[in-house]
Input
Amino acid sequence: MSSRRTISRGSGLLSRKKSFADLERHAWARDSIEALASKGIVGGVGGQAFEPGRGVTRAEFAVMLVEALGLAGDTPSSFTDVKPGDYFYRAAGALRQNGISNGAGDGRFLPNAVISRQEMMTMAARALRSQGMLEAPEAGSPPEFEDFGQISAYAREGIARLAAAGLIQGNEGRIRPVEHATRAEAAVFLYRIYLYAGEAAE
Output
């Protein structure tokens, strides 16, 4: 019997294509950004901009991830730095309720901190596992990334699962785990997650 849950992803219909005026230098991410924006999973900044090269904050990624996977969460956020009325309040609560993020370990979520690539990957891996997806890789087969040794212990299992599923490939043999993720990188990664979740749920 499958342990996968039925998920309802995104908040809208494919009513019309959504684009942004500042994607010219990020052509590699355009399709993913526009696809997610058309589904209501990501939004722009101040109207016509997406700010693809800016670091994505923990709050922004929380909202994107919850929308991409349709994660349910009716438990109020218990993080001390997340308040009712914050745009990410429901998303932060959903992450905690589903065991995806416990914050910084001191009761804070640090919503305005720019997320690292390994944090982003770990949240996504935990989110997929909370929905009964993302199988463990074969024993003794760690991902062949040159900088795998730079990955923090807490993130290694999740990143190994993502790599085994083909959801991260790295760039020139590296995944730069401790570097900050940009909004463009987050969108491309999340679109892969979105498509994977749709296929796994079928």
